[in-house]
Amino acid sequence: MNFGGGHSIPNLILRHDKSAMPEHIRKRLEEEIQQLEHELNHELPKELKKAVAMGDLSENAEYHMAKQRQEFVRARLGQLKKRMAELSMVNLANIPKDRVAFGATVVVYDGAKDEKIEYTLVTSEESDVSKGLISTSSPIGRGLMGKKVGDTATVVTPTGKRELEILKLTTVHDEAV
Hints:
The longest helix is centred in the first third of the chain and has 31 residues. The protein is built from 4 helices and 7 strands. The strands form 2 sheets. It has a 5-stranded mixed beta sheet with strand order 5-4-3-7-6. A two-stranded antiparallel ribbon has the order 1-2. The chain is about 40% helix and about 25% strand. Strand 1 and strand 2 form a beta hairpin. It folds into 2 domains: about 80 residues, Helix Hairpins (Orthogonal Bundle), CATH 1.10.287; about 80 residues, Chitinase A, domain 3 (Roll).
């Protein structure tokens, strides 16, 4: 796959505190948090109250299902809030200007496939390999992190080891200019 043209981080928020979070990711996480909080605080208590009114809780399937859903919603809320906190901690001042990091677009030469490939390193929520958007936590993303132009990254993927030579690098700092 050869991805021509430059990719940029969509709707990257550059705030006065030098932190960065993709706007559409923030909105999506906030919307899911709001929906789950509404369910946890309004809908599930009504379901539980209705189920309790039916009597014997030991054999009350509605009650047990509502309790299980309540546990799931609480766990998912915890995950989402943790992810929001992690993403809000991304600080542009800590992203290197000359090495592969979050937000970088990198052109690599894959010797095994004898082709140039362009990747943009994004959050796991934005990852879309078919568009060249790879997560910083993916095997390729982790392998490329911290590399400079001219370096070779050895990446272990499900299809085996790949040697990727860094040909070109554009960081978030370059794109912000």
